[in-house]
Amino acid sequence: MTETSNLLNQMNERSREVFRRVVEGYLASGDPVGSRTLTRDFSERVSAATIRNVMQDLEYLGVLGSPHASAGRVPTQMGLRMFVDGMIELGEPTEQDREKFDSIVGDNGGDVGGLLDRVGSALSGVTQGASLVLTPKHEAPIKHIEFVSLAQDRALVVLVFSDGHVENRLFAPPPGQTPSSMREAANFLNALVEGKTISELQRTIAQEIINRRQEIDSLAQQLVESGLALWQGEGESPERLIVRGRSNLLNADGEAENFERIRSLFDDLERKRDIAEFLELAEGGEGVRIFIGSENKLFSLSGSSLVVSPYMNADRKVIGAVGVIGPTRLNYGRIVPIVNYTAQLVGKLVSDRS
Question: Which fold has domain 3-86?
């Protein structure tokens, strides 16, 4: 049982209702919620002083906080996690929202990348957040790998898949690489690669490096990690991160400090070629996952939340992810079902196209 589950179980009915109303009020307005506001709408006749005492107890537990000197309270990150895990009421996407996504998926024109671009734009428009769409990765087993040095700071990895598909990916190798160390790295990989997809090979490599660290030349080890775990591809690639609706998130909070943190987040996202971390988030389990603030290191500096869901191919393998980024006061009850619905549609779209 998690810490937040324990806290929720310790709270009596009155404390739960006070907490729920504070969180719902904050998510709706973004403003601290005071005892007088709660007194007017409370289900039983209690005084403002009684509610203030309950709010103080909740603050002591660490689930509410006081951002200013006023009597109003807001949920802390732990409080939001407790609300999302144990108290949130999830609805269904509205008929209007479903129709918007259904019409996009029903349009069979263009390639998958173009359709996913439109899905990202629609997801951003419907949720008024910033959307993320991770396009499908090639999941056929690899047949052969070759590294080619192009310059001191640039190299090429050639991937030959068992289905005949060939990919060339550019990346920046660690300093000090030589043609010899690249051949050694390729030999090392080709001894492990047969019958494995990229994601399976990455897991094998990680374990092999632990088991055989002394046997592997340090430069070859760095090349393996840089060339396969941290793709630095340029131009078109089967793996692509689509970011839509940046302005929605930038407009979500007018404070200059928050604006700057969020701007930095998106500058980083737009520079990132390595989007493996998003798949790692999605592959942690089926269904929607919610990361609040510092729970996800990618967004900890901006104080944002990420609602992300994997999508799968016909073989039930995770091949991509869709998600929404927004301030921590997202309307989780509405956005979680939308992200889940979108992920299911995208998975069907990709499977049908395949």
Answer: Arc Repressor Mutant, subunit A (1.10.10)
One-letter amino acid of 324: V
Domain topology for 142-229: Enolase-like; domain 1 (3.30.390)
Q: Tell me the pTM.
A: 0.69
Residue pair 353/112 in contact by the 8 Å Cβ criterion:
yes
- Residue (of 268, 284, 269) closest to 318 by Cα position: 284
Average predicted confidence (pLDDT) for the chain: 76
Closest CA to 248 of 304, 311, 186, 166: 304
The highest-level CATH class for domain 95-137+239-353 is alpha beta
Q: How far apart are CA 28 and CA 178, in angstroms?
A: 58
Nearest to 339 by CA among 298, 297, 291: 291
Q: What is the pLDDT of residue 237?
A: 45
DSSP state of 295: G
The predicted model gives 158-182 an average pLDDT of 77
